[in-house]
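For consistency, the fold was encoded as tokens, as this record shows:
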Amino acid sequence: MDSAPPVIALTRLPSTTTRSDRSQSPVTAASESTALRPVSKNRQILVLVSSFLTIVITIGLNQSYGVFQAYYISPSQIILNSTDNSPALVAFVGTLASGLTWSGSIFINPMLTRISLPQLRQLCVSGVLLMSLGFGLASISSTVWQLLLTQGLLYGVGSSLLYFPILSSAPEYFNERRGAAMGFILSGAGIGGLLFSPLVRALLSNIGPRWTLRALALIVLVVSLPIAVSASPSRFLGRRPTHVDLKMALKPTFLLSVCAGFLQSGGNGLPLTFLAEYSVALGYTAAFGANLLAVNNAVNAIGRILTGWVGDRVGRQNMLCSMCLLCVAAIAGLWLGSIGDGGRKGLWLAFVVIYGMAGGGYNALFPTTIAEVFGLQAYASVNGFIYFVRGLGTMFGSPVGGQILGESKLGNYREVVIFDALLLAGATVCVVAVRGLDAAEKRAWRWRA
């Protein structure tokens, strides 16, 4: 008879028991609720690469939308019937895609504990097909509302169906080096933006918008289908909680984390949406604006890796607070300063680099601190809900910023920058408060946390 595969019990994690479990011994219940599948080095590498590429093709593509934003509102665009398109409405195409990518978590994560591995992979494949279909149908669109339904809605739903089945279990495959591993995985957002921003700009210039969108539809299929058919299961042998219970929902750390997620996502995406457009208002060419977006994404990728690595050594929550403060300083100091005296290009270039580093750090560290504050077993439920709220924040920030902006003139950006700084300052206050309250709840202050 074959022996049963070994399991690993994480006895330091809290167990979740139901009414029927009360007759079981506490040790048995804890063991069943926290038992993990063994993991091989090859499986870790597969999870690392698949998760990285998933981020590239979902978040990375979303972060390059600023190139489309600048093109769709430019007088030279040849895809939309109207030449007077609202920047706020055009911005909502990209933020709808980004928002749905994240907010789909509240529907998808509960499904993941109830389906088999073949069904999980089918879910991923359906997501890939929707993403590709979204770009394909966008290529025959001629109005902004059609782009909202295709490049926004279809692509966003599809990317969420791929993103969460792959990413929700990724932290489970890494222990001591979880910060570095997640930093590398999430650096895919910056790498994706670095690759797609100049690529999209070059394609728009050489083959036009319709064939650009068709090319992206093909790229999504080629890159994403292998990821979908090789998706890895959760390591937990028992069912993880997928809903946030009332006790968790009333915890101050949870409420503040939710608030931080909404404010940060609303503020974080706004500079990326308008980066290429603002560069043109500052006097640069559209091509140079696309290149600056690529530079920002490259620094963003480096920032995610470095801050994850440093966070493992000095404390992930400490690093998260520091990156939030740096984001606010970059927005209020450099971006706002670049508007004065008819435009200060040196300050703007400094902002592109520093904000890319700081913003990348926040996005890399936030998932790891969720696991640290709320426990690995609660990661899926808490992370899923917070990402749902982050999706709502994304759909709030850039469209409101576009409405504040009106016409894309240099002086009109001042109120947009102040709005962005206020969002990120609020997020910083919440993150710092979580750091203190988490130590108070655990009754132990640690400098390295």
Observations:
- Residues 1-33 have pLDDT under 50 and may be disordered.
- The chain has 17 helices and two strands.
